[in-house]
Amino acid sequence: MSASEPLVLGIESSCDETGVGIVRGHTLLADALASSVDEHARFGGVVPEVASRAHLQALVPTLHRALDEAGVTLADIDAIAVTAGPGLAGALLVGVAGAKGLALAAEKPIYGVNHLAAHVAVDTLEHGPLPEPAIALLVSGGHSSLLRVDDLARGVTPLGATIDDAAGEAFDKVARLLGMPFPGGPPIDKAARDGDPLSITFPRGLTGPKDLVEHRFDFSFSGLKTAVARWVEARERSGEPVPVNDVAASFQDAVCDVLTRKALDACRSQGIETLVIGGGVAANSRLKAMAAERAAAYGITVRVPRPKLCTDNGAMVAALGSHLVAAGTAPSKLDFAADSAMPLTLVGV
Ligand code: KG4
Ligand code: ZN
């Protein structure tokens, strides 16, 4: 780390995590987080109004924790980055309004950035600069996409995306029908460790010969979710116990099989040797292991940040902000809007 590298503060509030991160260059100095996940658990999904209120309460205390953790003051910060979208409109507004207030009061440049690009940029905090071009597999609760990254500061090229449920959404829905808490990724990951992934054959969406022509890099998880539901229902109807660990392991392997197969196909077809995986589902232990094992056979390097950096946090926003500052990108105008449907192709506003 060099003191000449920019000191960037990042604010994340697109969903249920209020995150404030501070980085210098590629070095993580603070990653403070407040989550309203427990308040949403009984509804089985994030309630937008509850999330917005929680952000409002958490933003200032989380900011102070981050500054303390990094041992810096607001005056020391060179630039502020904030998630401008995509995400829940009311939740985004809290972070954007807060960041603009700070930028105005402390006279700092502000960067409104894309949450999804930030999920890719965060890996630089763990593994250093991203070799470009790279293929990025982005798998979260709201998105599942395969992207080609030639220059992260300028934008990404979408290769494919889910045509129905996101991968994280499938984990959340399957967990719910197995009686596990929300969010469903972590409990399925844990249960699957004691299950047999080969015990039940669940469908691999969009992998048939015809699909591979029309939807080579797209995903579909809705049929898989329905297949799991039917299988569990049939068991219950027959009065037999549901082998929860086996169902979890077989479902998880079906998701990871499709994700890794298509991501590596994208790398090979484009002659790219680096695959970076980001988003909440990248925290999945099986996905990481399967990707590494399969990639090794082709000489492809897989980069996955540690689990805490995969799920939503402020450090990822700071990491993308730092990348934009280093690339000489002009800051956003102070009147930029939060954009709940911000397209993936737009890195900043
Ligand atoms: O990126 P993220 O924190 O928020 C969004 O931008 O959506 O992703 C949250 C998603 C949830 O669906 C959650 O179940 C999933 O990531 N997730 C996991 C794991 N940890 C979180 N999915 C599978 N395995 C995990 N270990
Ligand atoms: Zn996310």
Automatic annotation (TrEMBL):
Pfam families: TsaD
Principal localisation: cytoplasm
Protein name: tRNA N6-adenosine threonylcarbamoyltransferase
Principal EC category: transferase
Keywords: Acyltransferase, Cytoplasm, Iron, Metal-binding, Transferase, tRNA processing
Entry-linked NCBIfam families: gcp_kae1, T6A_TsaD_YgjD
GO MF terms held by the record: tRNA N(6)-L-threonylcarbamoyladenine synthase activity
Origin species: Catellatospora aurea
Cofactor(s) essential for the protein: Fe(2+)
Coiled-coil boundaries: none
Cofactor details (free text): Binds 1 Fe(2+) ion per subunit.
Domain Gcp-like: 28-318
Annotated InterPro entries: ATPase_NBD (IPR043129), Gcp-like_dom (IPR000905), KAE1/TsaD (IPR017861), TsaD (IPR022450)
Binding site for Fe cation: 115, 119, 312
Keyword match Metal-binding: yes
Family as reported in the entry's similarity comment: Belongs to the KAE1 / TsaD family.
Superkingdom in the source lineage: Bacteria
Binding residue positions for substrate: 138-142, 172, 185, 189, 284
Subcellular location field: Cytoplasm
Enzyme nomenclature, EC number: 2.3.1.234
Protein function: Required for the formation of a threonylcarbamoyl group on adenosine at position 37 (t(6)A37) in tRNAs that read codons beginning with adenine. Is involved in the transfer of the threonylcarbamoyl moiety of threonylcarbamoyl-AMP (TC-AMP) to the N6 group of A37, together with TsaE and TsaB. TsaD likely plays a direct catalytic role in this reaction.
Catalyzed reactions per annotation: L-threonylcarbamoyladenylate + adenosine(37) in tRNA = N(6)-L-threonylcarbamoyladenosine(37) in tRNA + AMP + H(+)
UniProt key word ATP-binding: no
